[in-house]
TrEMBL record:
It comes from Paenibacillus piri. Transmembrane segments: none annotated. InterPro entries: Sialidase (IPR011040), Sialidase_fam (IPR026856), Sialidase_sf (IPR036278). This is exo-alpha-sialidase. It catalyses: Hydrolysis of alpha-(2->3)-, alpha-(2->6)-, alpha-(2->8)- glycosidic linkages of terminal sialic acid residues in oligosaccharides, glycoproteins, glycolipids, colominic acid and synthetic substrates. One of its GO terms (cellular component) is cytoplasm.
Length: 342
């Protein structure tokens, strides 16, 4: 049985719209639900903060939300969390631009886009100041940049791996090249960050998962014109990637999605499983992402971005997702259901 809880609603606490959910269950079992809180409108630029709600009972009840990243009237967003198993530190990768830094201006090199991290050493109760890592993870000539948006992963090697995307300025035309997925990583518990492998053009918002054999699967929003998810594989911890393949089984409306290893070698996938932003669905693959089965539809109506996590010692699937009755961005809900439903 699927149980639903509304966590964020448009108009709540002086914010026009809540968007871009991400989800993390900590080593101690605390559930962290992050999203962007957009102050004055629903657009991607403007006065945007990052907010957090915490649950201590596997997502059944929730603390009030708190602002954890605020840069005045500027935009802070694209929350992408990961916890280091060894240190317990939670890292949250974010992006920043000026309040008037619209995406088209960033793509054209007329506005800046920066990459930041904050961290928590107390299960999300308090957070550090913003730390700028742009120079380490963004190449000269890259204009647009975004992390996730969804959770990041820690590989068995200890590497922290964050799915990201970028675009490159074309100096001859003054325009931008295609969106391109890539990853960044840290091998020293978040002390330093580096650019990993660049996956391929005409992809952007992406999510990654490590399979039991150590290979890394990356699943991407695709701009290749076929309403199918794109994916690729890495055998070296994200430093290089295979050619991109379009998955005939995973329909998308050109939108974000999330993937998660289920603790038993299976991979869960969530997205609006339609050519429109509707029908938020969770699917599972038990054969290394070759085929997908068992669709759990969480919301038949308008829906968009989502993220996945496991709670209750891996027995409960959590999906944090955008949805509404007339449009996909009216609220952010958390769905909870037993993993054995998949």
């Amino acid at each position: 049985m699927v149980k639903q809880t509304e966590l964020f609603k448009s108009g709540q606490d002086g914010y026009h719209t809540f968007r871009i959910p991400s989800l993390l269950v900590t080593n101690k079992g605390t559930v962290l639900a992050f999203c962007e809180a957009r102050k004055n409108g629903g657009g991607d630029a403007g006065d945007i903060d990052v907010v957090l709600r915490r649950s201590f009972d596997n997502g059944k009840t929730w603390e009030p939300f708190e602002i954890i990243a605020d840069d005045g009237t500027n935009t802070i967003g694209n929350p992408c969390p990961v916890q280091d198993r060894e240190t317990g530190t939670i890292w949250l990768v974010l992006c920043r631009n000026a309040e008037d830094g619209h995406e088209k201006d960033i793509l054209a090199g007329k506005a800046a886009r920066e990459v930041l991290v904050i961290k928590s050493d107390d299960d999300g109760a308090t957070w550090s100041d913003l730390r700028d890592i742009t120079a380490d993870v963004k190449l000269p000539g890259w204009t647009w940049y975004a992390a996730g948006p969804c959770h990041a992963v820690q590989l068995k090697s200890g590497r922290l791996l964050v799915p990201c995307n970028h675009a490159v300025l074309n100096p001859e035309t003054g325009g931008s090249g295609p969106y391109t997925a890539h990853v960044i990583y840290s091998d020293d518990h978040g002390a330093s960050w580096s650019i990993g492998g660049i996956v391929g053009e005409y992809t952007n918002e992406c999510a990654a998962a490590e399979l039991p054999d150590g290979s890394v699967y990356i699943n991407m929003r695709s701009y290749r014109g076929e309403n199918k998810r794109a994916y690729a594989w890495s055998r070296d911890g994200g430093l290089t990637w295979s050619d991109i393949v379009l998955d005939d089984a995973l329909t998308e409306p050109v939108c974000q999605g999330s993937v998660l290893e289920d603790g038993l070698g299976g991979i869960l996938f969530s997205n609006p499983a339609s050519k429109a932003r509707e029908k938020l669905t969770v699917q599972i693959s038990t054969d290394g992402c070759r085929t997908w089965s068992v669709q759990q539809v969480l919301h038949d109506g308008p829906a968009a971005y989502s993220d996945l996590a496991l709670a209750d010692s891996g027995n409960t699937v959590l999906c944090l997702y955008e949805c509404g009755e007339a449009r996909p961005y009216e609220q952010i809900k958390l769905a909870r259901f037993p993993k054995n439903l998949m």
